[in-house]
Amino acid sequence: MRYAGYRLLSLAAALTACAKEPSRPKPEELRGPRLLQAIPKPGFMLQNLDGSPFDFRQATRGTLSFLFFGYTNCPDVCPLHMANLAWAIRSLPLEQRRAVRVVFVSTDPERDTPDRLRAWLAQFDSTFIAVTGTPTALEVAQRAVGMPPALREGELPNGGGYGMSHAAQLWAFTPDDSAHVVYPWGMRREDLAADLAKLLRIWPPPP
What is the pTM of this model? Predict the structure, then answer.
């Protein structure tokens, strides 16, 4: 009888533990636009700010990695994406934040010096990774995710220098080394924050 009672207590404890464990969210619960077919993480090569090679696939393996192509003189799209992403990451528990990487690829290496990139990204989050490369390498990287390469535009008014036309989407590569969702410009930071936690639970990092 004691043995049977012990088994019943153990079963009850197990059922209670299962009941308390939240169910894993489903991809359709994500708020960002989902891709019809997942895109494998590309393995393009660029340069870190110290000039060393940067292999995107290798450097972000096993993490939730956000990839964005932009430039520091951008008046709207780039700072808004970085600000929203930084806010969303700060809303996560520390353990989850450690599994997130943000890679900002400068498409304007002429003006985006290493010092400028460091200072600009530090306004949002000092852990964000800045990389750049030659015009050829940048074109290869952008086309690797199906985007047209950024182009230099004419001079801006009032001595504002030149502008750059570039894609505005933020790619989210989950720990399975695939992109299942992409975030357009104008995505609310609250929606982005809600998705971050879900992405890490649907496609969790390796143990």
Answer: 0.86
Q: Which CATH superfamily is domain 25-153+160-202 in?
A: Glutaredoxin (3.40.30.10)
CA 156/CA 24 separation, integer angstroms: 49
**Could you tell me the two tokens for 13?**
């404890």
The number of angstroms, rounded, from the C-alpha of 16 to the middle of its chain's C-alpha atoms is 36
End-to-end alpha carbon distance in the chain: 40
- Quote the CA–CA distance of 121 and 158 in Å, as a whole number: 25
Give the integer Cα–Cα distance in Å for 206 and 28.
22
Tell me: the pLDDT tens digits for 14-57? 444 444 556 889 999 999 999 999 999 999 999 999 999 999 99
The token pair that represents 200 in the structure block: 């890490």
- Please state the domain extents for the chain: 25-153+160-202
